[in-house]
Amino acid sequence: MTATTYTFKDKLIAWLQLTRFDKPVGTELLLYPTLWALFLASASYGRLPSVAHIVIFTLGAVLMRASGCAINDFADRKVDGQVKRTKNRPLADGRLSAKTAVLTFVGLSGLSACFLFFLPVQVFYWSLVAVFLAFIYPFMKRYTHLPQVVLAMAFGWAVPMAYVASIGTVDKWGWLVFVAYMCWTVAYDTMYAMCDKDDDVKIGVKSTAILFEKWFGDKDVYFIMVLNGVFLVIMTALVHRFFGVWSACGLAVGLAGLFAMQYDKIKTRERLNCFTAFRQNAWVGRYVFLYVAVLAVVQYG
Question: What are the distances in angstroms from CA 153 to CA 10, 92, 136?
Fold first, then answer.
């Protein structure tokens, strides 16, 4: 049996798949909340965030999401081939080596760290937590049913970093943004995990999708909606605090409509419907970002 030879083009496509540059939804789910945090932190002082901060955190989010995907595939390289959705990932099917994934994680993380030279030194210390969380997250599914919580912390840590960069500290509003983002992330990543639940049970991988079903039975989707509801309430309260009651009402109505569409999908528990509901969260991110950004420009621009 001869080994398969891959061309440079094959390797490049495989690397783009490793880093998920071909699937930007995950990047959006990390990026938009970081931008909310920048706008809301600046709103505490009645101003807009600097263009430099927006550019730096945007590039950082893109690179860190890609590096996180690389280390995730490294951690899952021996199990991805046993899961329907992931069996064609580049490490699982042999197009890339484990070494390539590790070097990609280190390289992209290092490149992202270069942007820290343009931010206050305190942000560097906060960033160490983000890198640590991004590294350990992929391994958590072997030890706990709460890997989605670790992912939420890893993604969400950009929120306090944005606050420290903008106003030098994380005030109570900043921590509320962080809690809201945690709830939303656990909700949408549980939808994602529902796609693989049957395979995960067979191979012994843990997730909140499995845990919630164990705890709540066929009411598990209601708990996901509770998490989305907490996110909606907190974000509405924050918009009310900085932009007024009518602005808050508009945000709440829009979010309620988006979450209602997600519930309509996940209540079936069907694999493709759950994946569709997960992807719809990109619209949640876009909506909240545009809503907050427009309000901030109108009020402080």
Answer: 34, 27, 11
**Per-residue pLDDT for 33 more than 80?**
yes
Enter the DSSP assignment of 5. P
Rounded CA gap, 38 and 157, in Å?
13
Evaluate whether residue 178 is within a structural domain. Answer: yes
CATH code: domain of residue 96: 1.10.357.140
Domain count, the chain: 1
212 vs 235: CA distance, rounded Å? 24
For residues 17 and 90, is the Cβ–Cβ distance under 8 A? Answer: yes
Pairwise CA distance, residues 218 & 188, whole Å: 18
Whether residue 300 lies inside any domain: the answer is: no
Other CB atoms closer than 10 Å to residue 95's CB: what's the count?
19
Q: Report the alpha-carbon distance of residue 104 to residue 19 in Å, rounded.
A: 8
**Positive or negative, the Cα torsion across 86, 88, 93, 97?**
negative
- What does pTM read for this prediction? 0.92
Domain that holds residue 242: 8-286
For 92-142, the pLDDT digits (tens) are 888 999 999 999 999 999 999 899 999 999 999 999 998 898 888 888 888
CA torsion sign for 7, 8, 9, 13 is: positive
Among all chains, which residue has been given the structure tokens 């540059």?
21
Place of tokens 């992931």: 86
DSSP output for 75-104: HTTTTGGGSTTTTTSTTTTTSS-HHHHHHH
Within the chain, how many helices (H) and strands (E) appear? Answer: 13, 0
Residue type, 112: S
Residue 124 is assigned to a structural domain of this protein: yes
